[in-house]
Design a protein that fits this description.
Layout: H1 2-33, E1 36-39, H2 50-56, E2 62-66, E3 69-70, E4 78-81, E5 85-90, E6 104-105, E7 112-116, E8 119-124, E9 127-128, E10 130-134, E11 137-142, E12 145-147, E13 156-161, E14 164-169, E15 172-174, E16 178-185, E17 190-193, E18 196-198, E19 202-209, H3 211-217, E20 225-228, E21 231-232, H4 244-247, H5 251-262, H6 268-271, E22 275-282, E23 294-300
Parallel strand pairs: 1-2, 2-5, 3-6, 4-7, 5-8, 6-9, 7-10, 8-11, 9-12, 10-13, 11-14, 12-15, 13-16, 14-17, 15-18, 16-19, 17-20, 18-21, 19-22
Antiparallel strand pairs: 22-23
């Protein structure tokens, strides 16, 4: 009798353990893969608002946004992405309606899509005015059309402020005052690859801080920002950097650097197959404490000769 009771107890324990393992496995799987949320502007999905879908999503979810125009903004001027998510634009109608093409993020004041203080976000397949990345890492921005509504009126296409491990891949950036504005620390690994930069006042500018770490570690600036195979249409105006007053203190820099390199709208006219990208190196992290910076050049070693199909 005791032997039979012990066997029954053992069986119950094993069953409970198996159930616990099954529940744990399911929870782990759901956490890693995430769920799927449908956004449709005509109400056929889970939400009609991209921001509401983000606010109600769990980390790791995939938010699929179908064709249409999305002009609801719950926060001033911007849709905010503040958790690990994938935002995927689907260029077709969902349910009833006749929308087509990439979903358009639109609304008052041009609308910005902001990724802020988060790790692991993907944004792909949208049409939007401009996009900001702030203090975030492991970000992929791909197959988006960024077209300023202000026609060079002050907007920046994609701006990165203190991020790392970011891929900007196969986007089209048009009509911005600066298409790409990248301010990061050394060894951030920002890759800008196979994008179209057309009809912007200035296509790209950068600032890399903590230059002393670059020098100390024996690495180079192009391990912080790497440009490759982009199509560079001619910048609309000559290049002007915001620290030109600092340069005027140094006659050699002013003459040899500014007048030789910067007074040309299309740098490919004298650079062969390379594209020059101008910016600055800042030795320290805090510019307000020690305002020292130096002009710097990065290169797209193999720029595309024709616009890329995106």
């Amino acid at each position: 009798m005791k032997m039979k009771l012990r066997n029954i107890c053992i069986c119950i324990i094993l069953i409970l353990a198996a159930m616990s393992m099954s529940i744990s496995a399911k929870t782990f799987k759901d956490t890693i893969i995430g769920g799927e949320i449908i956004v449709d502007d005509e109400g056929d999905g889970d939400y009609t608002s991209i921001q509401e879908a983000i606010d109600n999503a769990n980390p790791g979810d995939v938010i699929k946004v179908y064709s249409g125009t999305y002009d609801d903004i719950l926060y001033p001027d911007s849709i905010i992405v503040d958790k690990p998510l994938t935002l995927e634009g689907i260029p077709e109608e969902y349910g009833q309606g006749n929308d087509s093409g990439k979903p358009v993020v639109d609304g008052y004041n041009g609308v910005i899509l902001t990724i802020s203080d988060v790790d692991s976000v993907v944004v792909t397949g949208f049409q939007v005015g401009c996009l900001k990345i702030i203090r975030s890492s492991n970000i992929t921005i791909s197959y988006n059309l960024l077209n300023s509504r202000r026609d060079h009126g002050g907007e920046e296409g994609i701006s990165i402020n203190d991020g790392e491990n970011i891929l900007i891949y196969r986007n089209s950036l048009r009509n911005h005052v600066h298409a790409l504005s990248i301010y990061v620390k050394s060894n951030s690994h920002i890759e800008v690859k196979q994008n179209n930069l057309i009809n912007n006042v200035r296509h790209a500018k950068f600032r890399i801080s903590e230059w002393y770490k670059i020098h100390h570690n024996g690495t180079t600036a192009n391990k912080s920002i790497f440009y490759s195979e982009n199509y560079w249409g001619a910048d609309l105006t000559i290049w002007e950097e915001d620290h030109i007053d600092t340069w005027n203190r140094f006659i050699i820099q002013n003459v040899l650097f500014y007048y030789i390199f910067c007074k040309r709208p299309d740098y490919r006219t004298f650079s062969g197959s390379k594209k020059f990208i101008f910016g600055k190196i800042q030795p320290f992290e805090d510019e307000s404490t020690i305002d020292v910076s130096f002009p710097w050049i990065l290169f797209d070693e193999n720029p595309a000769s024709n616009p890329i199909d995106i």
